[in-house]
Amino acid sequence: MHSNRLGWLLLAPTLLVLGLFGVVPFFYVVWVSFHQWNPFAANPDMIFNGAENFRRLVFDEAFLASLGATVSFVFFAVISELVLGYMLAQAFMKDFPGKGFFRTIHTLPLIMAPIIVGSVWKLMTTPSIGIIPNLLDSWFGFDLNIGQSAAAAFIVTVVMDVWHWTPLVTLSLIAALVSLPQDPFEQAQIDGAGKRQIFWHVTLPMIAPAVLATVFIRLMDALRTVDEVLMLTGGGPGAATRYVGVHIFKEVFPRTNYGYGSAISVIVLYLTIVVCWLLYVGMLAPRNTGKG
Amino acid sequence: MNHKLDDIDTPIDVLEDNAPPPSGSRGFLPIETNAFDRCFISVVIWIALSLFWFRFMEPAGLSIWISNVIAMAIAAIVIAKG
Lengths: 292, 82
Known about the structure:
The complex is a heterodimer of chains A (292) and B (82). By secondary structure, chain A is an all-alpha fold. Chain A has 12 helices and 2 strands, in the order H-E-E-H-H-H-H-H-H-H-H-H-H-H. Chain A has one domain: MetI-like fold (Orthogonal Bundle), CATH 1.10.3720. Chain A is 74% helix and 1% strand. By secondary structure, chain B is mainly α. At the A-B interface, helix 8, helix 9 and helix 12 of A face helix 1 of B. Chain B: Keywords: Membrane, Transmembrane, Transmembrane helix.
């Protein structure tokens, strides 16, 4: 009983901070999402309008388009980061000259603020002065203009996200790979297993929890990407890179439509939770079924 | 060659030794759930059904309250037997 009370006492500061900065704002956003509220309008009061904001958003073509673009962005970005991150993690498991230096260099993007990443990539991809369009033009004769080509803008946002966040995946997977016991690998090799079999049947199941946690973090992060993309493309050209975070930003700040923006935020949070939960269940259910 | 690999066909479960004893129950849902999980699943279904109803059923003249009643019924089944 005493230890139980001590446990709650030790948890209290964390719970208090979490409640104040996590739970209370969440319920406030849910509350606002059921209102029409433009604090800068002639009538700045919150007007309760039931589920009208949610009714509106299922017909909002701009929102649905931004959701589609976000799904594509998240899919390509997270998959690329995972594959590249795993390959880099495996490379860092081996010894080679300059390993420490390269390992430090490769984590540098992680310490950059997203708004800086966005501005750096904007400078690098601006057609007249950017290094990337110049190199692409001189090497391949390819004209990269993210202000005109929707596909190019989309690809550049994905590449920027991959550049920024792959080191996080690499570090997580290095930690997972380093902690693996050697016995199963030796046993598999003695049994004649090839590299591919060892990867699918030994390595992957053993690092699955780390992979799952990394995918969750990246998935949640990628779904709410705003500042990098806003800085790089501003959501354009047209609405090509107007991902859902950018859409919410434009709905809430320039248009000061707080109620509708909150409704979109709630639905995006709902989708994020559902996707993560389905992923979790998808990886957990076969494990439990296997146990019988 | 491949018959030698029979013993590694089943993926190694690194969590098996440390896994806590199962605290949930098993109903018609494909996973082991506790009361909180079943409430969560009910809310997820309720929101999904409401959005679906707003988009496709309400324009046909069917009130959102019908969706709410269906969601409540599904929630009752999931919580009781999930």
